[in-house]
Amino acid sequence: MLVQSNFLVSQPKAIATRCIACSASGAATGRFRCASCGDLLEVVTQRPAQAATLPALWRERRRSDTALDRSGVWRFREALPGLVAAASVVTLEEGNTPLYALPRLAAKLGLESLLAKHQGMNPTGSFKDTGMTVAVSRAREEGCCWVACASTGNTSASMAAYAARAGLGALVLVPEGQIAWGKLAQALDYGALTFQIHADFDGCVRVLDEIVGRAPVYLVNSVNPLRLEGQKTAALELWEQLQGDLPDHLLVPGGNLANGSALGKGLLELQDWGLASRLPKISVVQAAGADPLARAWRSDGAPTMAPLAPESLATAIRIGKPASWKKAAAVIAATRGTCLAVSEAEIALAKAEIGAEGLGCEPASAATLAGLKRLRAQGFVKQGERVALVLTGHLLKDADYALRFHLGTLPLGDFAAQERPPEVDGALAARRRAPISLAADADAVLRRLEQESAHA
Ligand code: F0G
How many angstroms separate the Cα of 333 from the Cα of each of 67, 99, 283, 378? Predict the structure, then answer.
């Protein structure tokens, strides 16, 4: 029997939170906003007793057969203090995702190593599962009947799956025509009540906020600080997979700007507990058409942020008014990282390059590699440094984007005015692999194979 710590509680406990702006403490409720100033809340985590024994305990749990230990979130439960009782946990064995090496790209970029933490290998194909197991477990424990989110697709897919497992209703608001089909198909298949709203993501958030004030639904958008507690475990896993020898840089795509801050919270806590000595610089990469934090970062180091009307083919991060921008800015500053934007053409190229390594990811995730190339060119990432990218979603989430890229029909021309390195357009053309239509004739196939191998 493995040590269960203080996690087994008999009654739901109030979750201790603190406002990120005025530091007021209190219990999380409703909209997850500070009762005094209206800003976001974060979960207050205490340094666990005997922190030095945790690495061995967390690792040991991977050999256990219990559902709780097999989850890559709940095996770190000492870092998630008393959020839910063990009996309430809703898990799909999320987390425990692979950390892949990309040696060819590392050599090309002059890095000692380049790693990809592939969060798209979670049960519903995105990092959202690591947060959703915590939020939906809590919703069940509080006796809620419905969970709800506004989403660019992945949050809704994940929420719908966990709600179905828990026997809860799932209310989804997505921007009509602006999310990838794979994600919409997931929400429908998992039985969510799905509304396609005539607005962008930010408009869906506004409508949902009103619904939360008027109906007894439990909000699982990333303003819910419990989500971030689950998401931070990916950073703990990275630290564990590297035996504590963290990279120099960690790059994360930014949309609503919660995930980068969650990973940062995890790493800063490890440092606080004496388990990590040197942290990576955490940098957030946005799409150039949906880059409110990157703009603020350039002009004033982000004490303020102006919302904008977002545009991007990377629909997951097509967000103009990110809720968690202050949390992200704080983590970037604390780790001496940066925030930058990359063009659609760079995202498309980076995605094809990750695909060509046999990993694949969705467009938003590829923004990390595109951002790395820029930071390397600027010298922010130096020769011989070690870098990890967080790939947030699976290639098949947005198969349509991949197909259109290779068929040459992705509307990159709509973004032709975006600034990008001169070599990108030529490199893009060289990456296309359109399917070849041929007669049912082995000779014809072999002739074509010969031609292709002569060019290889
Ligand atoms: N990558 C993917 C694949 C995403 O789905 C998202 C966000 C992000 C990156 C950005 O993370 O918002 O924490 O900065 N997707 C949300 C959704 C908004 O509704 O699925 P973030």
Answer: 37, 26, 9, 19
